[in-house]
Write a structure and sequence with these properties.
Helices cover about 30% and strands about 15% of the residues. It contains 13 helices and 14 strands. Helix 10 (about 215-225) packs parallel to helix 11 (about 260-275). The chain has one domain (about 5-330, about 350-365): 3-Layer(aba) Sandwich (Alkaline Phosphatase, subunit A). The protein has helices at about 5, 15, 25-30, 50, 85, 105-115, 120-125, 170-175, 185-200, 215-225, 260-275, 315-320, 355-365; strands at about 35-45, 70, 75, 90-95, 135, 150, 165, 165-170, 235-245, 280-290, 310-315, 335, 345, 350. It is of the alpha/beta class and about 375 residues long.
Protein backbone atom coordinates (compact mmCIF):
# COMPACT_ATOMS: atom_id res chain seq x y z
CA UNK A 1 0.00 0.00 0.00
CA UNK A 2 1.31 3.46 -0.83
CA UNK A 3 2.57 5.86 1.81
CA UNK A 4 -0.29 8.24 1.12
CA UNK A 5 -2.79 5.59 2.18
CA UNK A 6 -1.35 5.77 5.68
CA UNK A 7 -0.22 9.37 6.07
CA UNK A 8 -3.03 11.89 6.25
CA UNK A 9 -2.87 15.42 7.59
CA UNK A 10 0.20 15.33 9.85
CA UNK A 11 -0.46 18.63 11.52
CA UNK A 12 -0.53 19.94 15.07
CA UNK A 13 -1.71 23.17 16.61
CA UNK A 14 -0.07 26.18 18.16
CA UNK A 15 -1.31 25.15 21.57
CA UNK A 16 1.22 22.33 21.62
CA UNK A 17 4.16 23.59 19.60
CA UNK A 18 3.95 27.37 19.30
CA UNK A 19 2.77 27.12 15.70
CA UNK A 20 -0.20 29.12 14.48
CA UNK A 21 -3.37 27.58 13.08
CA UNK A 22 -5.89 30.37 12.82
CA UNK A 23 -9.58 30.26 13.59
CA UNK A 24 -12.53 29.10 11.55
CA UNK A 25 -13.56 32.32 9.71
CA UNK A 26 -10.42 32.16 7.53
CA UNK A 27 -11.14 28.59 6.56
CA UNK A 28 -14.78 29.25 5.91
CA UNK A 29 -13.73 31.75 3.26
CA UNK A 30 -11.42 29.31 1.53
CA UNK A 31 -13.92 27.49 -0.67
CA UNK A 32 -13.01 24.20 -2.32
CA UNK A 33 -10.36 24.82 -4.99
CA UNK A 34 -9.16 21.97 -7.19
CA UNK A 35 -6.02 23.38 -8.78
CA UNK A 36 -3.05 23.91 -6.51
CA UNK A 37 0.53 25.13 -6.32
CA UNK A 38 3.17 23.74 -3.97
CA UNK A 39 6.08 26.18 -3.80
CA UNK A 40 9.41 24.87 -2.46
CA UNK A 41 12.08 27.49 -1.71
CA UNK A 42 15.67 26.19 -1.54
CA UNK A 43 17.10 28.94 0.65
CA UNK A 44 20.83 29.61 0.62
CA UNK A 45 21.46 29.85 -3.10
CA UNK A 46 21.57 26.28 -4.46
CA UNK A 47 24.36 25.35 -6.85
CA UNK A 48 22.09 24.57 -9.77
CA UNK A 49 25.04 24.03 -12.10
CA UNK A 50 25.90 20.93 -10.06
CA UNK A 51 22.25 19.93 -9.72
CA UNK A 52 21.72 20.17 -13.48
CA UNK A 53 25.15 19.96 -15.14
CA UNK A 54 25.53 20.57 -18.87
CA UNK A 55 25.48 17.54 -21.13
CA UNK A 56 28.70 18.68 -22.78
CA UNK A 57 32.00 18.71 -20.90
CA UNK A 58 33.17 22.22 -20.03
CA UNK A 59 36.40 23.70 -18.70
CA UNK A 60 34.56 25.56 -15.93
CA UNK A 61 33.75 22.60 -13.68
CA UNK A 62 34.78 19.00 -13.18
CA UNK A 63 32.58 16.45 -14.90
CA UNK A 64 30.02 14.91 -12.55
CA UNK A 65 29.84 11.17 -13.06
CA UNK A 66 26.77 8.93 -13.34
CA UNK A 67 24.29 11.70 -14.11
CA UNK A 68 20.85 11.02 -15.56
CA UNK A 69 20.08 12.61 -18.93
CA UNK A 70 17.26 15.17 -18.88
CA UNK A 71 17.48 16.59 -22.42
CA UNK A 72 20.17 17.00 -25.05
CA UNK A 73 21.67 19.92 -23.08
CA UNK A 74 21.14 19.07 -19.40
CA UNK A 75 21.77 16.21 -17.04
CA UNK A 76 20.55 15.60 -13.48
CA UNK A 77 22.91 14.98 -10.57
CA UNK A 78 23.06 11.29 -9.48
CA UNK A 79 21.87 12.19 -5.96
CA UNK A 80 18.72 13.66 -7.51
CA UNK A 81 17.60 10.76 -9.73
CA UNK A 82 13.87 11.41 -9.16
CA UNK A 83 11.82 8.78 -10.99
CA UNK A 84 10.30 8.34 -14.41
CA UNK A 85 6.80 9.31 -13.31
CA UNK A 86 8.07 12.68 -12.08
CA UNK A 87 10.57 13.32 -14.88
CA UNK A 88 8.02 12.82 -17.65
CA UNK A 89 6.10 15.81 -16.25
CA UNK A 90 9.16 17.90 -15.34
CA UNK A 91 10.35 21.21 -16.79
CA UNK A 92 13.78 22.55 -15.83
CA UNK A 93 14.20 26.23 -16.69
CA UNK A 94 17.69 27.74 -16.56
CA UNK A 95 18.96 31.33 -16.25
CA UNK A 96 16.03 32.20 -13.98
CA UNK A 97 15.92 34.83 -11.27
CA UNK A 98 14.81 38.35 -10.44
CA UNK A 99 15.36 41.08 -13.03
CA UNK A 100 15.97 43.80 -10.45
CA UNK A 101 18.90 42.79 -8.26
CA UNK A 102 20.37 45.11 -5.66
CA UNK A 103 23.08 42.74 -4.46
CA UNK A 104 24.07 39.10 -4.10
CA UNK A 105 22.76 39.13 -0.55
CA UNK A 106 20.55 36.20 0.46
CA UNK A 107 18.22 38.52 2.35
CA UNK A 108 17.82 41.04 -0.50
CA UNK A 109 17.15 38.38 -3.10
CA UNK A 110 14.80 36.34 -0.92
CA UNK A 111 12.80 39.46 -0.09
CA UNK A 112 12.50 40.39 -3.76
CA UNK A 113 11.27 36.92 -4.65
CA UNK A 114 8.86 36.66 -1.74
CA UNK A 115 7.46 40.15 -2.34
CA UNK A 116 7.58 40.13 -6.13
CA UNK A 117 8.87 43.72 -6.44
CA UNK A 118 6.02 45.04 -4.26
CA UNK A 119 5.59 45.86 -0.55
CA UNK A 120 3.41 42.89 0.38
CA UNK A 121 3.75 39.17 -0.33
CA UNK A 122 3.60 37.79 -3.86
CA UNK A 123 1.40 34.86 -2.87
CA UNK A 124 -0.77 37.11 -0.69
CA UNK A 125 -1.60 39.17 -3.79
CA UNK A 126 -2.13 36.01 -5.83
CA UNK A 127 -4.59 34.64 -3.27
CA UNK A 128 -6.59 37.86 -3.03
CA UNK A 129 -9.39 38.03 -0.49
CA UNK A 130 -9.95 34.29 -0.27
CA UNK A 131 -6.57 33.70 1.44
CA UNK A 132 -6.47 30.02 0.54
CA UNK A 133 -2.85 29.43 1.49
CA UNK A 134 -0.87 27.31 3.96
CA UNK A 135 2.76 27.56 5.09
CA UNK A 136 4.46 24.38 6.30
CA UNK A 137 7.48 24.88 8.54
CA UNK A 138 8.83 27.09 11.31
CA UNK A 139 7.29 30.38 10.19
CA UNK A 140 5.04 31.97 7.59
CA UNK A 141 7.22 33.29 4.72
CA UNK A 142 7.12 36.89 3.56
CA UNK A 143 5.45 35.68 0.36
CA UNK A 144 2.22 35.50 2.41
CA UNK A 145 2.67 38.98 3.93
CA UNK A 146 -0.78 40.57 3.96
CA UNK A 147 -2.69 37.26 4.01
CA UNK A 148 -3.44 35.76 7.42
CA UNK A 149 -2.69 32.19 6.35
CA UNK A 150 -2.23 29.29 8.78
CA UNK A 151 1.15 27.87 9.71
CA UNK A 152 1.25 24.15 10.32
CA UNK A 153 3.87 21.74 11.55
CA UNK A 154 5.11 18.59 9.88
CA UNK A 155 5.31 14.92 10.74
CA UNK A 156 8.57 15.25 12.68
CA UNK A 157 6.80 17.30 15.39
CA UNK A 158 4.01 14.84 16.05
CA UNK A 159 5.72 12.83 18.80
CA UNK A 160 6.33 15.92 20.96
CA UNK A 161 4.08 16.12 23.99
CA UNK A 162 2.68 12.61 23.63
CA UNK A 163 4.61 11.06 26.50
CA UNK A 164 4.84 11.88 30.19
CA UNK A 165 8.19 10.58 31.34
CA UNK A 166 8.32 6.90 30.43
CA UNK A 167 4.52 6.57 30.33
CA UNK A 168 2.87 6.91 26.94
CA UNK A 169 -0.44 8.74 27.05
CA UNK A 170 -3.56 7.05 25.75
CA UNK A 171 -5.24 8.32 22.60
CA UNK A 172 -8.02 9.89 24.66
CA UNK A 173 -5.51 11.62 26.94
CA UNK A 174 -3.61 12.97 23.96
CA UNK A 175 -6.78 14.28 22.36
CA UNK A 176 -7.65 16.00 25.62
CA UNK A 177 -4.49 18.14 25.27
CA UNK A 178 -6.19 20.02 22.46
CA UNK A 179 -9.27 22.15 22.63
CA UNK A 180 -10.88 21.14 19.34
CA UNK A 181 -14.52 21.72 20.24
CA UNK A 182 -14.66 25.26 18.79
CA UNK A 183 -12.29 24.77 15.88
CA UNK A 184 -13.35 22.42 13.10
CA UNK A 185 -9.89 22.52 11.53
CA UNK A 186 -8.18 21.21 14.65
CA UNK A 187 -11.00 18.72 15.15
CA UNK A 188 -10.04 17.19 11.79
CA UNK A 189 -6.26 17.56 12.08
CA UNK A 190 -5.38 16.40 15.59
CA UNK A 191 -6.90 12.87 15.58
CA UNK A 192 -5.29 12.14 12.20
CA UNK A 193 -1.93 13.42 13.45
CA UNK A 194 -2.12 11.14 16.49
CA UNK A 195 -3.07 8.15 14.35
CA UNK A 196 -0.19 8.88 11.97
CA UNK A 197 2.30 8.86 14.81
CA UNK A 198 0.94 5.55 16.09
CA UNK A 199 1.24 4.06 12.61
CA UNK A 200 4.88 5.12 12.44
CA UNK A 201 5.59 3.35 15.73
CA UNK A 202 3.95 0.20 14.37
CA UNK A 203 6.36 0.24 11.44
CA UNK A 204 3.81 1.04 8.72
CA UNK A 205 6.03 3.73 7.23
CA UNK A 206 9.28 3.55 5.35
CA UNK A 207 11.88 4.85 7.82
CA UNK A 208 13.19 7.36 5.28
CA UNK A 209 9.81 9.11 5.33
CA UNK A 210 10.25 10.29 8.89
CA UNK A 211 13.97 11.11 9.07
CA UNK A 212 13.79 14.49 7.45
CA UNK A 213 11.73 17.57 8.24
CA UNK A 214 11.71 18.35 4.53
CA UNK A 215 10.46 14.91 3.46
CA UNK A 216 7.82 15.06 6.21
CA UNK A 217 6.74 18.48 4.97
CA UNK A 218 6.39 17.13 1.44
CA UNK A 219 4.23 14.26 2.66
CA UNK A 220 2.04 16.72 4.57
CA UNK A 221 1.80 18.95 1.46
CA UNK A 222 0.81 16.01 -0.73
CA UNK A 223 -2.10 15.24 1.57
CA UNK A 224 -3.19 18.87 1.63
CA UNK A 225 -3.55 18.78 -2.16
CA UNK A 226 -6.17 16.04 -1.96
CA UNK A 227 -9.77 17.20 -1.95
CA UNK A 228 -11.26 16.46 1.48
CA UNK A 229 -14.44 14.42 1.40
CA UNK A 230 -15.98 16.40 4.25
CA UNK A 231 -15.59 19.76 2.50
CA UNK A 232 -13.10 21.07 5.08
CA UNK A 233 -10.33 23.58 4.38
CA UNK A 234 -8.51 23.06 1.08
CA UNK A 235 -5.64 25.43 0.21
CA UNK A 236 -4.71 26.68 -3.25
CA UNK A 237 -1.07 27.56 -2.45
CA UNK A 238 1.21 25.61 -0.09
CA UNK A 239 4.75 26.72 0.71
CA UNK A 240 7.74 24.78 2.07
CA UNK A 241 11.18 26.23 2.89
CA UNK A 242 14.27 24.00 2.64
CA UNK A 243 17.42 25.80 3.79
CA UNK A 244 21.13 25.04 3.99
CA UNK A 245 22.20 25.50 0.36
CA UNK A 246 24.98 28.10 0.94
CA UNK A 247 27.92 25.95 -0.22
CA UNK A 248 30.91 28.31 -0.09
CA UNK A 249 33.25 25.44 0.84
CA UNK A 250 33.69 21.76 -0.02
CA UNK A 251 30.91 21.49 -2.57
CA UNK A 252 32.40 18.20 -3.80
CA UNK A 253 29.51 17.20 -6.11
CA UNK A 254 31.21 13.93 -7.15
CA UNK A 255 31.23 12.67 -3.56
CA UNK A 256 27.94 10.98 -2.73
CA UNK A 257 28.62 11.54 0.99
CA UNK A 258 29.25 15.29 0.74
CA UNK A 259 26.86 17.69 2.46
CA UNK A 260 25.66 18.89 -0.94
CA UNK A 261 24.96 15.39 -2.28
CA UNK A 262 23.26 14.36 0.96
CA UNK A 263 21.03 17.44 0.75
CA UNK A 264 20.18 16.58 -2.85
CA UNK A 265 19.23 13.07 -1.77
CA UNK A 266 16.85 14.53 0.82
CA UNK A 267 15.39 16.82 -1.85
CA UNK A 268 14.98 13.79 -4.11
CA UNK A 269 13.12 11.78 -1.46
CA UNK A 270 10.83 14.68 -0.64
CA UNK A 271 9.94 15.44 -4.25
CA UNK A 272 9.21 11.79 -5.01
CA UNK A 273 6.99 11.53 -1.92
CA UNK A 274 5.18 14.72 -2.92
CA UNK A 275 4.69 13.61 -6.52
CA UNK A 276 3.48 10.18 -5.41
CA UNK A 277 0.81 11.54 -3.09
CA UNK A 278 -0.34 14.84 -4.58
CA UNK A 279 -3.49 15.35 -6.62
CA UNK A 280 -3.37 15.25 -10.41
CA UNK A 281 -4.22 18.96 -10.49
CA UNK A 282 -1.21 20.09 -8.47
CA UNK A 283 1.86 21.85 -9.88
CA UNK A 284 5.09 22.04 -7.89
CA UNK A 285 7.66 24.83 -8.33
CA UNK A 286 11.15 24.45 -6.83
CA UNK A 287 13.60 27.37 -6.90
CA UNK A 288 16.37 29.18 -5.03
CA UNK A 289 17.06 32.89 -4.53
CA UNK A 290 20.06 32.78 -6.89
CA UNK A 291 22.54 30.36 -8.38
CA UNK A 292 26.23 30.25 -7.62
CA UNK A 293 29.39 31.27 -9.44
CA UNK A 294 30.35 29.26 -12.50
CA UNK A 295 33.86 28.57 -11.28
CA UNK A 296 34.80 26.79 -8.07
CA UNK A 297 36.52 29.03 -5.50
CA UNK A 298 39.79 28.27 -3.64
CA UNK A 299 37.79 26.72 -0.78
CA UNK A 300 36.35 24.18 -3.25
CA UNK A 301 32.92 25.72 -3.02
CA UNK A 302 31.03 28.26 -5.12
CA UNK A 303 30.08 31.80 -4.18
CA UNK A 304 26.86 33.79 -4.58
CA UNK A 305 25.78 33.98 -8.19
CA UNK A 306 22.91 35.53 -10.12
CA UNK A 307 20.99 33.34 -12.59
CA UNK A 308 19.55 30.12 -11.16
CA UNK A 309 17.17 27.36 -12.28
CA UNK A 310 13.58 26.35 -11.56
CA UNK A 311 11.99 22.93 -11.48
CA UNK A 312 8.30 22.77 -12.37
CA UNK A 313 6.45 19.45 -12.33
CA UNK A 314 2.99 17.94 -12.20
CA UNK A 315 0.58 16.30 -14.62
CA UNK A 316 -0.64 19.68 -15.93
CA UNK A 317 2.83 21.10 -16.64
CA UNK A 318 3.42 19.90 -20.21
CA UNK A 319 0.10 21.36 -21.33
CA UNK A 320 0.52 24.61 -19.40
CA UNK A 321 4.00 25.29 -20.76
CA UNK A 322 3.45 24.01 -24.29
CA UNK A 323 5.30 26.28 -26.71
CA UNK A 324 7.16 28.12 -23.95
CA UNK A 325 10.31 30.11 -24.72
CA UNK A 326 12.14 29.68 -21.40
CA UNK A 327 15.79 28.56 -21.47
CA UNK A 328 16.46 24.89 -20.82
CA UNK A 329 20.24 24.84 -21.23
CA UNK A 330 23.26 26.68 -19.83
CA UNK A 331 24.68 29.47 -21.95
CA UNK A 332 28.24 30.05 -20.74
CA UNK A 333 28.45 33.19 -22.87
CA UNK A 334 25.49 34.76 -21.01
CA UNK A 335 27.09 35.77 -17.73
CA UNK A 336 26.92 38.47 -15.09
CA UNK A 337 30.16 39.72 -13.50
CA UNK A 338 28.40 41.48 -10.68
CA UNK A 339 31.55 41.24 -8.56
CA UNK A 340 35.09 41.93 -9.69
CA UNK A 341 37.16 39.10 -11.10
CA UNK A 342 36.50 36.12 -13.35
CA UNK A 343 36.08 33.80 -10.36
CA UNK A 344 32.86 35.63 -9.47
CA UNK A 345 31.38 35.23 -12.95
CA UNK A 346 27.85 33.85 -12.77
CA UNK A 347 25.04 33.04 -15.15
CA UNK A 348 22.92 36.00 -16.20
CA UNK A 349 19.16 36.07 -15.71
CA UNK A 350 17.38 35.47 -19.01
CA UNK A 351 14.00 34.47 -17.60
CA UNK A 352 12.31 36.46 -14.85
CA UNK A 353 11.18 33.89 -12.30
CA UNK A 354 7.85 35.69 -12.03
CA UNK A 355 7.09 34.97 -15.68
CA UNK A 356 7.14 31.28 -14.70
CA UNK A 357 5.26 31.81 -11.42
CA UNK A 358 2.68 34.09 -13.03
CA UNK A 359 1.99 31.42 -15.63
CA UNK A 360 1.37 28.84 -12.90
CA UNK A 361 -0.78 31.22 -10.84
CA UNK A 362 -2.86 32.69 -13.67
CA UNK A 363 -2.85 29.75 -16.08
CA UNK A 364 -3.37 27.04 -13.51
CA UNK A 365 -4.32 28.01 -9.93
CA UNK A 366 -6.77 30.73 -10.98
CA UNK A 367 -7.98 28.98 -14.12
CA UNK A 368 -11.48 27.57 -14.18
Amino acid sequence: MKRRDFIKLSLLSASAFGLNVYSDPLFAMAGNPRKKLVFIFLKGGADVLSMFPPAQITSFRETINNCKEYNKDLKIHPSLPLNEDLIKNLMIFTHTGVRIKSSRSHFDQIEQIEKGYESDGYFARALGKLKKGVAIGAKVPTSFLGADVPLISNLSDINKGFELGDVKMTRRERLALFNTSKNSVLKTIVPKAIDDYDNIEKGFFNADSTKSDFVSSCVTASELTQSPKDGSFEPSIITIDFGGWDDHINLDPNNSSSAFSTRLSTLNNGLIALNDGMSSETIVVVMSEFGRTIRINPSKGADHGVGSAMMVFGKQVNTLFKGHKFSQSWDFSSTDKGLAGASSEAFAVKNDCFEVLDKVINGHVKAS
